[in-house]
């Protein structure tokens, strides 16, 4: 069966985790010696999970051209201090239903943001619009429908340029980039339009997503079909996709009544079998995530699953498409237009059911004319979707390779 997925299931799985297993995350007593228990509604990411580990951390606000106010964090140096010189800036972009906390959930020795800071990088963390620390807007209120009228096209158009431009102008240096999942999709889409490539030195893409053709998780397929099915207008009328909200809960409950859905172990049935997660990290993850996105973003994923092509949001109406795009069908993001000399590092896992190996192969086919010495590809047989950001062995297997790749680039 042909299917695509990726973020979709991730979201669904996370939702379930949070909704069905609240006792798990609430009833366990945390060891305050090992786990940092912040009060997430009052402290920012710096004070919650960075400063307690002994790192310097700065909070920034960045306004997008369409008025969204995004929070960013910077870890300017490692625990042992600066190295005197100009440190190479790197921007970390999380996936859907996640936020910048993604990169900080394990110990400093295991989490990418800390590992990079301790390896001499100037680390910047992005938080996409609509997530906990990025819910303000110049004129719109996040409880209004208008605030949520965007899909990941707007992340390509506005969020990514705003954060990359900010770091570029603040440091005066070209950035290295790390994206996970949706963070790879919006980067690939940007690069395919020639955006931002003049401000980047290189990009590392973890669980790269451009196609969702081979998703084979039943729950993801059911969810995707629901989003583009006859109820599409209902979905388009729903603004915020809040995984913890009542509407999403009842949606998931309905899906789980389908005998094909396996809601017992959602994390596995959605993301694939993660080899290397720490139970304490999963608890921390459930404490902070999942985060909201727009319903339109979920519909956009479902369209990618349905159509097998990476393109802009389809209004499902030729007249409205014409108004937005000047053509009856949404324009395609053509991956083969990514500049051939942009250094890329791709890492993907054999057990990832969201970023399926066959979908990554389609992406690699699109990149077959990329300069050979500018494309590094890493395949990890045992890894699934979450291992790349939360796996206890990710440093040895993936992050060391990313650092070697970055250090190989000419400034
Ligand atoms: C946003 O709207 C909600 C509900 O209408 C209201 O309670 C809140 O005060 C508003 N926030 C701002 C910043 O205006
Ligand atoms: C898992 O996390 C706990 C709490 O942070 C830590 O004490 C333990 O060493 C971690 N286990 C591994 C294998 O990293
Ligand atoms: C993408 O661009 C290449 C050439 O740049 C072209 O051959 C190909 O047909 C395009 N693909 C799509 C889906 O438009």
From TrEMBL:
Belongs to the AB hydrolase superfamily. Lipase family. It comes from Dioscorea zingiberensis. This is Lipase. InterPro entries: AB_hydrolase_fold, AB_hydrolase_lipase, Lipase_euk. The keyword Lipid metabolism applies. Residues 52-106 form the Partial AB-hydrolase lipase domain. Pfam families: Abhydro_lipase. Keywords: Hydrolase, Lipid degradation, Lipid metabolism, Signal. GO terms for biological process: lipid catabolic process. The active site is at residues 181, 352, 385. GO terms for molecular function: hydrolase activity, acting on ester bonds. Residues 1-27 form the signal peptide.
């Amino acid at each position: 069966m042909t299917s695509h997925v990726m973020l979709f299931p991730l979201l669904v799985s996370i939702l379930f985790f949070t909704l069905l297993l609240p006792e798990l995350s609430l009833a366990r007593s945390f060891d305050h010696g090992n786990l940092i228990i912040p009060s997430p509604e009052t402290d920012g990411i710096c004070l919650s999970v960075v400063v307690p580990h002994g790192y310097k951390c700065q909070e920034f606000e960045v306004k997008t051209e369409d008025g969204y106010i995004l929070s960013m964090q910077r870890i300017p140096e490692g625990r042992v201090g600066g190295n005197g010189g100009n440190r190479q800036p790197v921007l970390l972009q999380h996936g859907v239903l996640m936020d910048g906390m993604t990169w900080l959930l394990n110990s400093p020795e295991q989490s990418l943001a800390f590992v990079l800071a301790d390896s001499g990088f100037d680390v910047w963390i992005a938080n996409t619009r609509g997530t906990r620390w990025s819910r303000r807007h110049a004129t719109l209120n996040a409880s209004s429908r208008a605030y949520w009228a965007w899909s990941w096209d707007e992340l390509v158009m506005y969020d990514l340029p705003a954060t990359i431009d900010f770091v570029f102008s603040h440091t005066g240096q070209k950035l290295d980039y790390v994206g996970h999942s949706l963070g790879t999709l919006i980067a690939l889409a940007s690069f395919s339009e020639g955006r931002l490539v003049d401000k980047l030195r290189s990009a590392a893409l973890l669980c790269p997503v451009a196609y969702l053709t081979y998703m084979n998780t039943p729950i993801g397929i059911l969810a995707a079909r629901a989003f583009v099915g006859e109820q599409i207008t209902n979905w388009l009328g729903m603004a915020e996709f809040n995984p913890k909200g009542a509407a999403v809960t009842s949606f998931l409950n309905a899906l789980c009544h389908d005998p094909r859905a396996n809601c017992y172990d959602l994390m596995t049935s959605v993301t694939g079998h993660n080899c290397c997660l720490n139970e304490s990290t999963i608890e921390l993850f459930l404490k902070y995530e999942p985060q909201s996105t727009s319903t339109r973003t979920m519909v956009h994923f479902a369209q990618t699953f349905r159509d097998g092509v990476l393109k802009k949001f389809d209004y499902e109406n030729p007249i409205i498409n014409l108004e937005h795009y000047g053509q009856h069908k949404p324009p395609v993001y053509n991956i083969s237009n990514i500049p051939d000399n942009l250094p890329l590092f791709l890492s993907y896992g054999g057990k990832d059911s969201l970023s399926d190996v066959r979908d990554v192969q389609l992406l690699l086919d699109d990149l077959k004319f990329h300069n050979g010495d500018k494309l590094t590809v890493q395949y990890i047989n045992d890894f699934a979707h979450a291992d790349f950001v939360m796996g206890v062995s990710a440093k040895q297997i993936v992050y060391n390779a990313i650092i070697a790749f970055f250090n190989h680039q000419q400034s």
